[in-house]
Amino acid sequence: MDNHPLDQRKLFLLALGRLVVGLALIAGLLVLCAGTTDYWQAWLYTGVLLVLLSTSFNWLMRSDPQRLERRMRTREREKRQQRVIGVSTLFLILLYVLPGLDRRFHWSQMPLALVLLGAGLVILGYLFYMRVIQANQFASRVVEVMQEQKVITSGPYALVRHPMYLAMVIFFLGTALALGSYWALIPATLMIPVLAVRLLEEEKILRRDLPGYAEYTQKVRWHLIPGVW
């Protein structure tokens, strides 16, 4: 797909449609599970997402539609990656189901400070995610090695080998807090080993198919979290 000109109108409509539908699904799921619209944490969270997603959509559409197109891909070729995506999707659904149920049945009470901290982590995680995309023009939603792809060693890639997954960890943990649910921390935390499996499988492909990646792993030791792993 990289070798063909993009139909920018089609890309615009597809990306905008996913943005609108995604936000509507998240808000709808939270309110449905909560059984009430009186759930200010959910509205704060979706408002933050609306600003972040709209800003990134506008930036990518104007500055680099091809990079946006790569972020729209969802079809994994590797069977093991497909299974990992299936498990992560389950945890992602629970991440949005549990807070609503928590609100409905009053399973836990989270202080305002933690909710605001969570909103800050959501913003931080997403901004870090956008910094990764800015640094790596080859960043794709699926595991693949494209023609003329090269190893990126600057920016966040100078710290860890998989900074996009680190951004996702921050975002998911922030989501649980921002939605005011201690119970949501369970699927958010379980996302970490799932992402670890995904990145290890990805590294096998990159070592095999991307020239220079093996040498890069000798220079940057940490997979996901600097100083830890």
Describe the structure in your own words.
The protein is mostly helical. It has helices at residues 8-34, 40-63, 65-72, 79-105, 112-135, 163-178, 185-209, 213-219. The protein has a single domain (8-219), classed as Four Helix Bundle (Hemerythrin (Met), subunit A) (Up-down Bundle). Helix 2 (40-63) packs parallel to helix 5 and helix 6 (163-178) packs antiparallel against helix 7 (185-209). The longest helix has 27 residues, at 8-34.
Sequence-ordered SSE layout with sheet pairings:
Elements: H1 8-34, H2 40-63, H3 65-72, H4 79-105, H5 112-135, H6 163-178, H7 185-209, H8 213-219
Helix pairs in contact: 1-2, 1-4, 2-3, 2-5, 4-7, 5-6, 6-7
Question: What are the main properties of this structure?
Answer:
229 residues; mainly alpha; Four Helix Bundle (Hemerythrin (Met), subunit A); 8 helices; disordered N terminus
